[in-house]
Amino acid sequence: MRNLLWILMLSFSSYSQDAKEKAKTLIDSKQFQSAQNELTEFLEQNTEDEQAMELLGNAYGHEKKWDEAIEQYKTLTEREPNNANYQYKYGGALGMKALSVSKLRALGIIGDVKSAFLKAAELDPKHIDTRWALVELYISLPGIVGGSISKALKYANELEKLSKVDGYLAKGYVYKYDDQPELAEKYYKLAIKVGGSVTCYEKLTNFYEDQKQPEKAIDNLESAQKKHQRNAMHYQIGKVCADYNIQLDKGEKCLKAYLSNHSAKDGVPKAWAYYRLAQIYKHKNNKTAALKWIDKAITTLPEIDVFKEEKSLISEL
Fold first, then answer.
1. If you average pLDDT over every residue of the chain, what do you get?
2. How far apart are CA 68 and CA 45, in angstroms?
3. What angle, 0 to 180 degrees and rounded to 10, lies between the N-to-C axes of helices 66-79 and 84-100?
4. Closest Cα partner for 236 from 199, 276, 197, 285?
5. Helices and strands, counts by H and E, the chain
6. Residue 7 in this model has a pLDDT that exceeds 90
7. Is the pLDDT of residue 2 over 90?
8. For the chain, how far is it from start to end, CA to CA, in angstroms?
9. I need a labelling partner for 247 at 20 to 30 A (CA). Which of 49, 107, 127, 315 fits?
10. What was the pLDDT predicted at 8?
11. Mean per-residue pLDDT for 230-245?
12. pTM
């Protein structure tokens, strides 16, 4: 009898693990509804399984089902109030719900968002994601409901102690929104110097575009391309050239290189490169070439209205 019970316990444990592993695989493959079905069925028989609850909350979050995600994470925080990661995920789901409702309704949620993030930060002094969340929260909120540059910088400083790259990126973000562009540029450049990741280069490029400094954006993208050899950066250079009507020959060359080397991992569909080439030829007053490329864009993705609007502008040349 004892052996039989042991075998049954092992079988049950194996089934539990199999169900959760299957759900993880479904989430990784973006089959979120199937993962929700798998986990919901599993939790009907395993109501105390916190890992399954967290996975279910994650699956709901991927589909922006914020109320359902909140329910799972709230249950987890009630069961494990000293678990920083549960507090962080609960605060994150609440925050996303606040962004999806009216400003009036959001005001009633913000306090709980802040409390969850502050609790997570208190529980885990090394929780990087929570500190990023607090930086973004304090920057995005108006002062009347708790927004604060000084508090955002406090958590940016904490990030810097944990990870210099994260700290520099956070400070760049804070100073950009505080309208201190010189300091923002300084810290984004420091992030590139220390980390040098694609993300670091992207943040500085976006900053330069926001500041209407396309020449600097192109220089930064070229440095990133030289370091990382990413085909997607060819498109980004072409986009900036087309948007700002500068360095048109360079933009044309980069967009054609992007098309020649295109693969699914590049992210941006070919149609958008066709569109950017059409813009460049429009700037060059080459109507025939511009129409050729915009027609290719429209044929490839006919549902994109901006392509049709661009064709109307080209037709007026």
1. 91
2. 19
3. 150
4. 276
5. 17, 0
6. no
7. no
8. 88
9. 315
10. 38
11. 97
12. 0.85
